[in-house]
Amino acid sequence: MPRTGVSCSDELSIALSDFKSWFSPSDAIIGTVNRKTALPGNYTVKLTFYGRAKTKIDTKTSNAWTINRGRASLFSETHILHEGDIRDDARFPFTLTVPETTQPGMVPRGDSFHRLANPKGRFLSSADDVSQHALPSSFYYKGDRSAWSGKMQESYVEYVLEAELTGPKTKKTATLPLFIHARSTPSPTTDYQLATQCRFVGIKSSLLAQQAGEEQSVWQKSRSIFSSKTPKLGLNLHVEVPGVIQLEHPDPVPIGIYLEALSDAEHTSILGDSSDTTSLPPVEVVSVNKLILKSRTEIRAPGTFVDHESGRDHEFMLRPPGPLPTPLRIPIHSIGLKSSALDTSTVAPFQLGQHMELFVDAEGTSCQGTKHEYAEERRLHPSFKTYNIHLSYTLEWKLEIRCAEVTRSVEGAAPVIVLPLSEQQERLKMQELGTEGMKRNYDDLARAADIGLTGLELVADIVQAFGG
User: Fold this and answer.
1) Which one of 31, 116, 391, 465 has the fewest beta carbons within 10 angstroms of its own beta carbon?
2) What is the pLDDT of residue 468?
C-alpha cells in the first residue's frame, strides 16, 4: 500500500515558490502548476489538495489470504486554475491554506463502522462535530506479520497536491505529497503532567548495622540471607515520570527520583526512634536496564461480514540498557510509613533525565552527548487518533538500586503523550536547515514514508518540484 509519490514532468508539474520541508495548519502554500509546451484548444487545469488516512490489514489463514482496506477522508478541496488555450512555458499560480481541522460535510467521508464498537474512544467518530477534530501529523507505519494472529498491518496519514490537465484526448496528472506537522505549543512546553510512581525496595544485610564499614567474610554474607535478626531497611522509591514528552525540546526529559525510608518495625530495624536519615547507608542507582517508549498503533478497516481491527507495538529505545558510568547516589529525604503519601511539594527529586542529558527527537535520542538512532530506521511520530488509526505511547523504565552491597531491580510503566516540536523550535529548525537543508530533510521524510521513489529519481523530482 504505497503512499502517493512525487510525480512531475515537462507535460505537467507542481512547483512551490515558498519551500518548506513541512507545513503546519493555517500555513499558506504558494506555488504554480507548470507546463512546458503549448496546447491550443479548450483545456482545463485544476488543482486538488486533500488529506486522508488509509489502513490495510493483511491476514493469513490456513486456506487463503484476506486483505481488508480502510480509508477516512480528512478534507479535500479543488480549484480551477485555468480554462482555454495553454501557451509555451505556462505557469498557473495558486495559493492554498492548510486547514486546521477535518472538513465537515464531505460525502462520502470514508468507511462506515456501524458494526464495530469503539471501546474507550480509541478512534474518533465521524458522527461527532468533525470541525473540532484537529488534523494529525503525516504518519506512516508498517508492521511485521504477527506470528500469533497471522496479521500484517499498514497505515498512513498523507497530504497531497494533485494537478490535473484535461482536454481533447488529453489527461495528465502531477502529484506532490506534503508533510504536515500537527499544531503544537507556541513555545517549548513546561506542562509535563508529571506523575509519581512508588515502588517498595527492601534491603536486608548485616552491612546495615554499625559495623557497615567492616569487610564481611563469605560466611557472614551467606548467614545474613537466612537470619531473622539480620538488619533490614525498607525504602519507598519514588520515580517522577512525565505524562508529556515533546519532540526536540531544548531541555532534557524530566525523570526524577527520590527516596523515603520506612520507619515501621516490619520493614526497618536500624532506625529505632531516630528520624535522622544522614546515618543511613548510601543508596545508589547503578544501572538503567530499560528506558523505552513503546508505541501502540491500532487500526481498523471494514469487512464484508464483520469489521476488523489490528494493533502492533514497537519499542523506541531512549537509552541503551546497562550500567551508568558512575553510580548515582540518591539522598534519602524523609522518614515515613509504607502506606503514607509523601508530600512531594517539599521534595526536590534527583533529576535522572538531566543527569543523563536525555533529549528526544523524531529520528533518535541524545544521551550524555551520544546520538542513538531508533532501530529499523523508524520515526517517532506524535501521538494522535483519527477515524481509523490510533497511535499511543507508554514510557517503560527499569532501574537497579544498590544499598549495603544488595542490589534490587524496580520497574514501572506509564502512559505518555508525544507532542510535535513547538512552533518556536520549528522556526529555529527551518532557519538552521536553510533551503538546501530542507530539501534534504524532505528527501529523508519521503524515504521514511515509503512513497515509492528512490535514489536519484526522488532527488531529481524534488529539485524540480521546488525549483520555483
Assistant:
1) 116
2) 45
Q: Using CA atoms of 62, 64, 65, 69 in order, give the dihedral in degrees to the nearest 10.
A: -120
pLDDT of 443 over the 80 cut: no
b/e code 137-159 from CB counts within 10 Å (16+ = b): bbbbbebeeeeeeebbbbbbbbb
Residue 185: partners with Cβ closer than 8 Å, 6 or more residues away: 246, 419, 422, 423
Tens digit of pLDDT for each residue in 170-180? 899 999 999 99
Which is it for strands 322-329 and 350-351: parallel, antiparallel or unpaired? unpaired
Q: Residue 117, class by beta-carbon neighbours within 10 Å (0-12 exposed, 13-18 middle, 19+ buried)?
A: exposed
Cα–Cα distance for residue pair 175/205, rounded to 1 Å: 70
Query: Hey, what amino acid is at 105?
Result: G
Residue pair 421/24 in contact (Cβ under 8 Å)? The answer is no
Length of the chain: 468
CA pair distance 159, 84, nearest whole angstrom: 29
The Cα–Cα gap between 229 and 55 comes to: 62
Integer Cα distance of 129 and 131 in angstroms: 5
Q: Residue for cell digits 474507550?
A: 120
Judge whether residue 289 has pLDDT over 80: yes
Three cell numbers written together for 2: 504505497
Start-to-end C-alpha separation, the chain: 31
Whole-number Cα distances in Å, 82 to 42, 95, 358: 10, 14, 53
Alpha helical stretches, state H, 74-124 = none
SS3 at position 66? strand
Task: Give the whole-angstrom CA distance, residue 267 versus residue 281.
Answer: 16
What the block records as the C-alpha cell of 92 is 498557473
Which pLDDT band, with edges at 50, 70 and 90, does 437 fall under?
low
Pairing between strand 406-419 and 244-246? parallel
Other CB atoms within 10 A of residue 306 CB: 10
Contact assessment for residue 388 and residue 72, using Cβ atoms and an 8 Å cutoff: yes
CA-angle at 378, arms to 252 and 367, nearest 5°: 25
DSSP E strands: which ranges in 215-347?
232-241, 244-246, 256-262, 283-301, 308-317, 322-329, 332-336
Q: Please give the Cα distance from 367 to 359 (Å, whole number).
A: 7
3-state class percentages of the chain: helix first, strand second, coil last, to nearest 5: 15, 45, 40
pTM equals 0.86
- Indicate whether 402 pLDDT > 60: yes
Cα separation, 381 vs 363, in Å, equals 9
Q: At what angle do helices 423-449 and 455-465 cross, to 10 degrees?
A: 140
User: Taking the CA atoms of the chain, what radius of gyration do you get in angstroms?
Assistant: 29
Indicate if the alpha-carbon torsion angle 461, 433, 247, 320 is positive or negative. Answer: positive
